[in-house]
Amino acid sequence: MIATLAGTTSYTAPGATISSRALSGVSTPEANVPEPSPSAGDATSTAAPQDQAAQSGNGRLIDLQTFTGASNAPDQEGEGEPTDPSGLTEEERAQVDELKQRDREVRAHEQAHAAVGGAYAGSPSYEYESGPDGNRYAIGGEVSIDASPISGDPEATIQKMEVVKRAALAPAEPSPQDRAVAAQADQTRLKAQAELREQNTEEQQAATEGGAAGADEGQSVQQAGRAAGAYAQAAQAIDGIVSQINIAA
Questions:
Q1: What phi, psi does 227 have (nearest 5°)?
Q2: Which of 82, 61, 167 is nearest to 121 (CA)?
Q3: Where is pLDDT greater, at 119 or 207?
């Protein structure tokens, strides 16, 4: 069975949705707009300024230089946010910094799994998010690990499950999924330990029965030897008696 060691994949950086702002127009306060000359004789002289000015909604003339300066300056609501040399706003820079920190944490987490898992662990895979700077940052990841028992070898299974558990708990902050894999490895190890005890008990019983059978066989041999010795002694005694009879005759 292939288990999965995974960190938390859900992540939302501050200001993740950044809307681009465009300056649609700036109105100049009425106090800064010069009043038109009340003299009717100045009608000819005001024609030229009209060629160099823009007509406002209230019919007043707005000096183009004043209009341009107002358009380039940020308004009181902060529509022209200051940017750093990279072209990012302060809010976007904060988002990039947090994405970089998250990327480092995720990679360290998954690489710890892979390093401790060794031959039983796969290579880390990551989930990415693009930052305001155009770069991709890892915000989640996972490592597959072989947590299956070794058939017919409970002792090897115990050793393997110890490695799997260490790999699952290797990161500084194991995820709930990591802890679930560690608990599963513990259960498999306990089962293998029970199988190993049963196997050892059977081997001891077989050895005991074999020793008893050998002892019985030894006793039988000893008894046969004693019987043969007694028979030989009896035969010698008989031969001695027969010899005496022959001599007497």
A1: -65, -40
A2: 167
A3: 119
On the 0-12 / 13-18 / 19+ scale of CB atoms within 10 A, 2 is exposed
pLDDT of residue 209: 81
Who wins on pLDDT, 65 or 128? 128
The phi-psi region of residue 177 (left if phi > 0; otherwise alpha if psi is between -120 and 50; otherwise beta) is alpha
Tokens 């110890």 belong to which residue? 162
Tens-place pLDDT, residues 180-209: 999 999 999 999 999 999 999 998 988 888
* End-to-end Cα, the chain, rounded Å: 98
Structure tokens belonging to residue 66: 């004043």
Region class of 227: left (phi > 0), else alpha (psi between -120 and 50), else beta? alpha
Contacts (Cβ under 8 Å, ≥6 apart) of 13: 95, 98, 99, 102, 129, 131
Contact 5, 113 (CB under 8 A): yes
Continuous segment of H or E residues that includes residue 176? helix 176-248
pLDDT for 31 equals 41
pLDDT at 15: 47
Separation of alpha carbons 163 and 113, rounded Å: 10
Tokens of 235: 């035969």
Q: What is the DSSP string of 114-169?
A: HHHHGGGB---EEEEEE-TTS-EEEEEEEEEEE----TT-HHHHHHHHHHHHHHHT
